[in-house]
Amino acid sequence: MSVSPHPQRPVEDSSSGKMPKHVAFIMDGNGRWATARGLPRTEGHRQGLETLRSIIRHAGKVGVEIITIYSFSSENWNRPATEVSFLMGLLKRFVQRDLSELHEANVRIRIIGGRSDLDPGILSLLEEAEELTRRNSGLELVVAFNYGSRAEILRAAQHLAQRVQDGDIRLEEITEAAFSQSLDTGGLPDPDLIIRTSGELRLSNFLLWQAAYSEFYFCDLNWPDFDEAAFDEALSCFGNRQRRYGGLDAKAL
């Protein structure tokens, strides 16, 4: 996978409504894509990985700085064991096949989600990807793995409560900024744009806190069919929106 180490055009300020700095993806519809073609669901996941590679490349070209992908939710463990096993195999192949190229392209990888109950083999792969790319300064690829937003919020609340109990901070120091910093995404800007494929119109426990002022883009394409042109269409739609963050646009005054 070839990723441009530097954007080919300057990144616009996301607040200007032209180019989002941070785009998050709910990559939905792999199974439906496969079923519609009479293929096993695993083939949909395989093709979905190819789509992901294409989207990462394109993001680097157009000037998006951060991509967050909902790769595996904490609820996905409830899927059939054969499908979960296949998805874990895909993860391993992705790290083994693409990690060196992502590193060479200056991509920085960050993992969010619960880690305490992960298989040691999977955890070591994720940590390897983070450690190898830690000092990179190009596109940031945030992988939400074993992730659920409610669990993330609960972890942040427990962390802050423990700090109060230990006397590290006072209750009144628990501000929105302090809470945001305690989330898995601490230090990252909230997503400007959240894209969900396959026609579903919900967040599915993804970035609930962070999505407070995100723009949403839903399309009927299943994830394996979401190509560069579809990504450009979503970016164009974002560029035509007015982001007011609860205020009024100057033209409306």
Characteristics:
253 residues, alpha/beta, globular, disordered N terminus
Q: Can you tell me about this structure?
A:
- 41% of the residues lie in helices and 13% in strands.
- By secondary structure, it is α/β, with parallel strands linked by helices.
- The chain starts with 21 loop residues before the first strand and ends in a 14-residue tail after the last helix.
- It is built from seven helices and six strands, in the order βααβαβαβααββα.
Average of pLDDT: 90
Question: If strands are numbered along the chain, what order do they take across the biggest sheet?
Answer: 3-4-2-1-5-6
Strand fraction equals 5-15%
Biggest β-sheet: count, sense, barrel?
6 strands, parallel
Low-confidence stretches: 2-17
The shape, in one word, is globular
- Helical region count? 7
Report the order of strands and helices: EHHEHEHEHHEEH
Radius of gyration, in Å, reads 19 Å
> How many DSSP E strands?
6
Assembly form of the protein: single chain
Helix content: 40-55%
Termini separation: 49 Å
Helix/strand structural class: alpha/beta
